[in-house]
Design a protein that fits this description.
The structure is a homodimer. Chain A has about 350 residues and is of the alpha/beta class. Chain A is about 30% helix and about 30% strand. In chain A, the strands form three sheets. In chain A, strands 6-9-7-8-10 form a five-stranded mixed β-barrel. Chain A has a four-stranded mixed β-sheet with strand order 12-13-14-15. The longest helix of chain A has 17 residues, at about 125-140. Chain A is globular and about 60 Å long. The interface of A and B includes residues 302 and 313 of A.
């Protein structure tokens, strides 16, 4: 029996520029079958929440450009459940809209907010964690974030330090949020047992997050409070088109989580990866016997290992003497880049824009 | 005034497997605009002989599969001047057919035989050399080959050693033909001044080559002598379809030039390259300021030099940390290979066949 007050908000507006050219402005990472499983990352995000939240209460928030992709990939979702942002304003305005929208439908609702482009491998453990989280936020005035048990000294993630007092099974008060550490600090974090990866998955009652926004981000909450009579009505979209672009672009972490005092973390270990980089995709994909990862292509390798090939349409890729590279072929763009230099890809995208306009973006 | 007894035979049946996947079975190297000049290698071979041999006496010998490509690329050539081999049998049977064919049209003819897939940069010097060569073979019972003044200790070419006695301006008797040397031997060759690159361009009277074939390759000459009444008539093609495949596959060098005693070399220096390898294509193509060669593509490079990119359709190629590689993208096949390992490409083509059949050949 699925609780009728429980909602899910899938955030689906990212543009995925770190995976250019495989991920393009017109079809970002969450809309791609990134692991070659037959389901896109968005579809997998939807699938895994279905046992916990009824599909009538799953909302997708995305940029209006991506409405056709969302409808194509999630045909079971009602149009009314797709919230189309008229502008990109980071996660705080996105979550605020979803909260005011849900509160208009059900003032007693609780909600889980999840990215659409992460990988979770152990779905049963994910379900259990979400159910425990709902129970906690429904009986506490709590902003809950999911913290992932770290398995390596990862320098690409933010960390959450837990306080010593345990509130409930696997749930502690948050002591601090930290930025991405350097390697030596990440090793200290890993050994301490007090630090967890910040997953970007949040849970709360709608009233709790609305109160928190009113206290810590009044510029944003004021916009939605002003429009509160339009939510859940036929004029909601018009109100959003006019007022959403006026919100400042800010993350929910920065706007609320790092400021509020009622912030808790549920520590979990369900095989999570944010797939934020080619290297993390390589680490999470099955390798062939020569130690290479091939996405959607045939591969013949000679003296080549540690590479990831993301190539479309069953192309044959023949490679000699390549170690630890990203090879991404998007039809009109071919990228060959050392994995160690993948932070350059943003610069490359920019250089492509400077030299060739929007053609290859 | 162009001499009416002078013929040209352009050999155009090669499959160019060393340039796979850019050169494919369906469109080998000679049919590609390899240097991005707007003319294919075949068209350039045709263009450069036009001032020496009338177009009515230029013959193209090719595999019957390539007849449509030849007609498309050389629309001025009469169908009767395209000799279609029903099977691949190397250069000796190809040249024999051309000789018997021309002899039926003009028993006093002389001919130049040239590959269709080589690069010659100084066309005026080429014309002068061909004219001198015609004059020599027309007044001597000579099998003449063109030897290129070497400019580097190239290990990829065969060499011709000249004898000390000069017959005519730049024309000497051949002392030996040698196989591809190793580097130290190639350096000795270069310093000696006696060794020239074997260009694969030959000149002779048709009667001289027919006699030489009768003496040194009687199995081949017997086939054509048997059909001599059909050459130049409506039944020539039928005779060839039935008898050509029975010829042994052997090169003219091996069948005749290395055996005959009346072999001469005209030493020339007209900027020749056989474009037999990616490295030689790299060496002969204009480099951009980062030291890379881009064929038909846009290029953004980072820490990358010494590479050759042969990519179709104005694709954008973005490359980080690649030095001295071949990157060839043929739409359904992508090859990335160190230039130093390009001799592996034949093996790769074979592996592609073993694994995927004819799909990618």
């Amino acid at each position: 029996m699925i609780d009728p007050h429980r909602y899910c908000v899938i955030m689906c507006g990212g543009i995925g520029s770190r995976f250019w050219p495989y991920s393009r402005t017109a079809r970002p990472k969450q809309f791609i079958d990134f692991l070659g499983t037959g389901r896109t990352l968005l579809q997998m995000s939807y699938d895994r929440i279905l046992s916990v939240v009824d599909k009538s209460r799953i909302l997708v928030v995305t940029n209006s450009d991506y409405a056709p992709l969302v409808k194509e990939q999630l045909p079971d979702i009602d149009d009314a459940n797709i919230l189309l942002e008229p502008a990109r304003r980071n996660t705080a305005p996105c979550i605020a809209w979803a909260a005011w929208h849900i509160a208009a439908l059900d003032p007693d609702a609780s909600m889980v907010v999840t990215p659409s482009d992460h990988l979770i491998t152990r779905e049963r453990e994910f379900e259990d964690a979400i159910c425990r989280g709902f129970e906690f936020v429904e009986s506490n005035d709590a902003l809950l974030t999911l913290g992932i048990q770290p398995t390596r000294p990862e320098t690409g993630y933010g960390y959450i330090q837990v306080g010593s007092h345990t509130e409930s099974e696997n749930i502690n008060r948050v002591k601090t949020f930290t930025e991405k550490p350097d390697l030596s600090l990440a090793e200290v974090f890993l050994q301490s047992g007090e630090f967890f990866w910040n997953s970007g998955i949040f849970m709360w009652k709608v009233q709790t997050i609305m109160d928190a926004l009113r206290r810590h981000a009044p510029d944003i909450s004021a916009v939605f409070d002003r429009g509160c009579e339009s939510f859940g009505t036929g004029i909601e979209n018009e109100f959003i088109r006019e007022n959403f672009p006026g919100c400042m672009g800010i993350s929910i972490d920065f706007a609320v989580m790092e400021k509020a005092r009622n912030v808790y973390v549920e520590t979990v270990g369900f095989g999570w990866n944010d797939l934020g980089t080619w290297s993390s995709l390589y680490d999470n994909s099955p390798r062939n016997k020569s130690g290479n990862v091939a996405q959607n292509c045939h591969l013949l390798t000679y003296d080549s290992t540690g590479n990831i090939f993301a190539v479309k349409d069953d192309k044959l890729v023949v490679v000699d003497g390549l170690k630890d590279y990203i090879v991404a072929d998007a039809g009109d763009v071919l990228l060959i880049c050392r994995k160690s230099e993948e932070q350059r890809i943003k610069q490359m995208v920019n250089d492509a824009r400077v030299n060739f306009g929007e053609t290859y973006l």
